[in-house]
Amino acid sequence: MEAKSDIGIILMNLGSPDSTAVPDVKRYLNEFLMDERVIDYPYLFRLLLIKGIIVPKRAPNSAEAYKKIWWKDGSPLVVLTKQLQNAVQNDLSMPVEIAMRYGNPSQESAYENLLKHNPALKEVILLPLYPHYAMSSYETAVEHAKAVYQKKGYRFKLTMVPPFYSEPDYINAMAESMRPYLQQDYDQLLFSYHGLPERHMTKADPTHKHCLQVNDCCHVDSPAHATCYRHQVFKTSELVAEKLGIPREKWALSFQSRLGREEWLKPYTALRLEELPKEGVKKLLIVCPAFVSDCLETLEEIAMEGKKSFLASGGDSFTMIPCMNIHPLWVQAVVKWLSALQH
Ligand SMILES: C=CC1=C(C)c2cc3[nH]c(cc4nc(cc5[nH]c(cc1n2)c(C)c5CCC(=O)O)C(CCC(=O)O)=C4C)c(C)c3C=C
Ligand SMILES: [Fe+2]
Ligand SMILES: [Fe+2]
């Protein structure tokens, strides 16, 4: 690594509690769910709902779920993001730090570490590790990074990498990381994406007249697609399936991790896992392309709970395809994008 690069990199992910202890999980959930881009209710109502009802009820259950997947070095999401940092750093002459939107390591610490490396830093490139745009993922990550940047009055330039849901290098890395699993006999490949309240889709539509208002909106061209999560996840699935030569009738798409009583994007993964065996899908492959690193939502919700539910509903085999994590083609893709931005 060069002694003093003018440019520094921050890989940004969602974050996890510091430990599986209930007070740590509570702290994390409070920070996460009090984010107005995640639960977008008026402040006082949100405060009462989150701190008074949701977090006290959810934290002990979440802590149990985290205990089932926790590694000796910590949360899989944070450990895997650090592994990605190291792998990218090996091939890049610019210093690479990581930051979590909630919890640790914080955005502040990432900026400060880059400045320690070079106090005359000219630019920071931030790569939010979310392939798709959502107010509750990509948007809150970049807005938080900007808010900390402004509060600290930093002089360096801050550049954001846009969502990469259809970038050929991401599609290729996804497809190649999945390919070995497709050698086995299967009835269906299910792309399961993190869900969103439907309301978030209409809210993110800058035209105010496209998302969920036009028939088959996600397949009708519109400037709204730049911020339309559902359009973007359809696109990722279509491109990956095409690259792998999977016929349309052999793959499907659903949305997981619903929280609360509102209508979220459908179909719901949890429901589909119960219905699929009854529809003749006995051998299932499942992949979660909204996450580049394995986390609670893949390791516990899908690989443990989802599997249990599918098999109990009459399924014969359930294979979870891991996230890209530090797949060489994914590392190569990140290095390529960041190197290109250097010039
Ligand atoms: C209204 C609630 C939530 C929205 C909207 C939401 C969107 C969203 N989340 C991710 C990525 C991840 N979410 C993770 C965990 C998680 N998500 C929510 C709620 C919403 N997410 C909660 C309460 C939790 C915590 C765990 C729990 O109690 O169930 C994770 C995993 C974190 C980990 O530590 O492993 C990720 C990753 C995206 C990409 C997204 C919008 C598209
Ligand atoms: Fe989430
Ligand atoms: Fe749409």
Automatic annotation (TrEMBL):
Domain of life: Bacteria
MF-aspect GO terms: ferrochelatase activity; metal ion binding
Residues binding Fe(2+), per UniProt: H194, E297
Entry GO terms, CC: cytoplasm
InterPro entries attached to this UniProt entry: Ferrochelatase (IPR001015), Ferrochelatase_C (IPR033644), Ferrochelatase_N (IPR033659)
BP-aspect Gene Ontology terms: heme biosynthetic process
Summary of the function given for this chain in its UniProt record: Catalyzes the ferrous insertion into protoporphyrin IX.
Protein name: Ferrochelatase
Organism taxonomic ancestry: Bacteria, Pseudomonadati, Bacteroidota, Chitinophagia, Chitinophagales
